[in-house]
Amino acid sequence: MIATEILVLIITVLVFGYYFSTKKPKNFPPGPRPWPLFGNLFQLKQNQLRHEQFDALGKKYGDIVGLYFGSKAMVILNNPKHIKEAFAEHVFSGRDISNLIKDRNLGGNRGVLLCDGPAWQEQRRFALKSLRDFGFGKKSMEAIIMEEVNELIAGFKSQHGTPVTTQNRFNIAVLNGLWAIMTGERYSHDDPRLNHLIRGLTATIAKRPLSSVLADLFPIVYHMRKTFPSLFTITGGVFQKETYKLIGETIKSHQETVQEDSPRDFLDVYLNEVKKTKDPQSSFHGEDGILSLRVTMLDLFVAGAETTSTTLSWAFLILALHPEIQEKVHEEIKKVVGLSRHVSLTDRPDLPYLEATDMEVLRYSSLVSTGQLKVVPVEGEVKPTLAPRTLSSIVLMPTEHKLVILDRQVA
């Protein structure tokens, strides 16, 4: 009799535990019922593209779908209208600073890519202004870019008549344009150290281990990865360590030669800013300013080495698959520019077909399958169509006309 009562009690506790652990907030969008503890994490297939699974969920549950990753609620927007509505809200501007990101950011809230709040605003404003002062995004960069183009062309010519791969081929060329403004240096496209780092970056971006996802959701997995790293696949750790070593060497050489009255590049300007900053609350202050510089340089290294080079790879693929388009582009360039010189920015108004092709490559290509996490504390400002008012939100950037919003209960 007592055994029966204990069994009934256990079953009752399990039933109520399951109900309350998988109960969704009021007004939460429709979606599959989550599992206890893990949510819908293991209901998504690891060997299938995430956006394809979101498409399937959208067809079943509608344009706005609610999921859970662990205890974090996620809202997927499958409609461009809702995506535009979300980006019109200022509240969707924060970042998710997880334990893994803190480790990557040298233990703090630093940099311009995975940073949040006043530190992000301060670093981003300074970086944009300083880089532009040295020509970033301006016509004056054309000479730097053409130097990289010439080396790329020479490399392709040396392999004429043989199969070539574009993966990792453009990264150093693109990175050099930004790195020259940042540090006054450039690297040969065959530089073994840089190529090793680029391969590490590509591997890190290409596949995120499941243990990394779980470490973001469950602190115990994070601490296990830290305590027993040999038991887990940690692809980004080696890349970050070796890239930080390169960055540290570059900063040290500039610290030894920097002149306050005649900065040579972005790095000199940043070091001067750290030197003159007296406010301990500033992200440029003292040793924290140097750490912020290291993280900012890592962020710019990643941004400079990956997105544009991936776009160029897409362009090569699309033109190879559509030789008739390639021929029309070539004919327009030959007619307008000729074959005796390179295309220049001044030729842009006279090359409408080339520009249209570039725009089509950008429209067709997909650079990031799941974007950067964003966190926003909500105090009744988010529209009900996007998220319940009692939630704070984490946003992944859109891909394939999608926006993913992760939500957490506000304490």
TrEMBL record:
Chief place of localization: endoplasmic reticulum
Transmembrane stretches, start-end: 6-22
UniProt superkingdom: Eukaryota
Cofactor(s) in the UniProt record: heme
Keyword Ribosomal protein: no
Membrane topology, record value: Peripheral membrane protein
One of the record's GO cellular component terms: endoplasmic reticulum membrane
GO biological process: organic acid metabolic process; xenobiotic metabolic process
Subcellular location: Endoplasmic reticulum membrane; Microsome membrane
Record InterPro entries: Cyt_P450 (IPR001128), Cytochrome_P450_fam2 (IPR050182)
Gene Ontology MF terms in the entry: heme binding; iron ion binding; oxidoreductase activity, acting on paired donors, with incorporation or reduction of molecular oxygen, reduced flavin or flavoprotein as one donor, and incorporation of one atom of oxygen; steroid hydroxylase activity
Keyword Membrane: yes
UniProt keyword annotations, A-Z: Endoplasmic reticulum, Heme, Iron, Membrane, Metal-binding, Microsome, Monooxygenase, Oxidoreductase, Transmembrane, Transmembrane helix
PANTHER family per record: CYTOCHROME P450 15A1, CYTOCHROME P450 508A4-RELATED
Family: Belongs to the cytochrome P450 family.
Protein's job: May be involved in the metabolism of insect hormones and in the breakdown of synthetic insecticides.
Protein name (record): Cytochrome P450
Organism: Allacma fusca
